[in-house]
Amino acid sequence: KQMKMLFNEASSAVELQLYFFPSVFQREITLENPYMLHFPFLNKQQLQVLKERFQAFLNGETQIVADEAFCNAVRSYYEVFLKSDRVARMVHSGGCSASDFRDVFKKNIEKRVRSLPEIDGLSKETVLSSWLAKYDAIYRGEEDLKLFFLSPPFFF
């Protein structure tokens, strides 16, 4: 009986620590540096540069090699999302970050990749990660390609 009581006390102490310490740690991170967990918000000039980079890719003016399916996904993203007035208004109001733009592209290509036929020896996850890497390269632009290969993905 005493052993069972000790076990219950120990397990409740562990449960309390699991609950308490991560929340304290999270609070410390957000109080110390609120920008650590968030990507910077885009402004109108950055949106214009982004549009120009994607247009340059679609015109074949970059050195990024891509198949037709990826080009169609980028064209759709450019025409439907980047050029929309709604996105321009959100950027103008300070409501869009680089991470938001990447998430929209990721959701778009996930739907497209699921509809593609299975290719022998190439998983759909591999295709997704390859397309996201190419997106990151387009997003950063030609002048930043060296940094792209030296730094972790999607840190703008």
Give a verbal description of the structure.
Helix 2 runs antiparallel to helix 3 (68-82), helix 3 (68-82) crosses helix 5 and helix 5 (98-115) runs antiparallel to helix 6. The N and C termini lie far apart (59 Å). The chain has two domains: 1-37; 44-150, no CATH class. The protein has helices at 2-32, 44-58, 68-82, 85-92, 98-115, 124-140, 145-150. The chain contains seven helices and no strands. InterPro entries: CAPS.
Question: Average pLDDT across residues?
Answer: 76
Query: Strand tally, please?
Result: 0
Helix content: over 70%
Taking pLDDT < 50 over at least 5 consecutive residues as the criterion, the unreliable ranges are 16-37, 145-156
Q: Number of helical runs?
A: 7
Beta-strand content estimate? under 5%
The ordered H/E elements are HHHHHHH
How far apart are the first and last residues' alpha carbons, in Å?
A: 59 Å
* Main sheet properties: none
Shape: flat
Number of folding domains? 2
Strand pairing plus helix content: what structural class? mainly alpha
What's the Cα radius of gyration? 22 Å
GO biological process, one term: positive regulation of exocytosis
InterPro entries: CAPS
GO cellular component, one term: glutamatergic synapse
Protein name: Calcium dependent secretion activator 2
Key descriptive features of the protein:
156 residues; mainly alpha; flat; disordered C terminus
